[in-house]
TrEMBL record:
Protein name, entry field: TetR family transcriptional regulator
Signal peptide start-end: none
Organism from which the protein derives: Paenibacillus barcinonensis
GO molecular function, one term: DNA binding
DNA-binding interval(s): 36-55
Claim: DNA-binding is one of the keywords in the record: yes
InterPro entries to which the protein is assigned, alphabetical: Homeodomain-like_sf (IPR009057), HTH-type_Tx_Regulator (IPR050624), HTH_TetR (IPR001647), TetR_C_Firmicutes (IPR039532)
Keyword terms, alphabetized: DNA-binding
Domain (HTH tetR-type): residue spans on this chain: 13-73
Keyword DNA-binding carried by entry: yes
Record field: transmembrane: none
Amino acid sequence: MLIIEHPQDRRARRTQDAIIAAAVSLILEKGADAMTIRDITERADYNRGTFYLHFPGKPELLQFLLDDFLHGLGQAYAEPYSHLTEVDMSGLLPSTMPVFEYIEAHQDQFQALMTMHGDMALRINNVFRNYLTQEFILVTEDSEQVINYDIMLSYLVSATVGVIMHWAEVGFKYAAHYMGEQLTALINIKPTRLLIKPGQKGRTMHERMLSD
């Protein structure tokens, strides 16, 4: 069924988006605690009445920023599988690029959220883990080693979230497509040896850290 969006709804969404963009930019500039509703409305070029048409107050706006980001991330992760029954995990997963592209498109909002929530990695981990446990079943290759399913799930999700958080920490300096390719390679290509750098043999870990 074709749903036609009413022009008023589109205008309302544009206004809401402008308020959100103003709030995100202010959070990155001065922090969420210092930001006021007046700051937001002046930055977005709206009056306070318009703000209150969309959000009851500042706490509700900040909660919306978090919920909206995580909901969109979950959709980016799950939507590619909506019409599939099985996926070969040896190559690029259907969700990999959509997830990185979503984060890239919302990187300012993500960075703003990280300044407010020190547990963003855990929150993202929970989004992915919930979908994996509720919607999917992971099948492993035959092996003599007994693999604990929950530990395997934790390893795969943590690896993905770790790569995402590193990407954010370096300021999203790599393109989403590159990050997707790197994550796929990391999951499928395992290190085989650990080499000690010349001059490091015999030194304690504390001594090595002090010299770096």
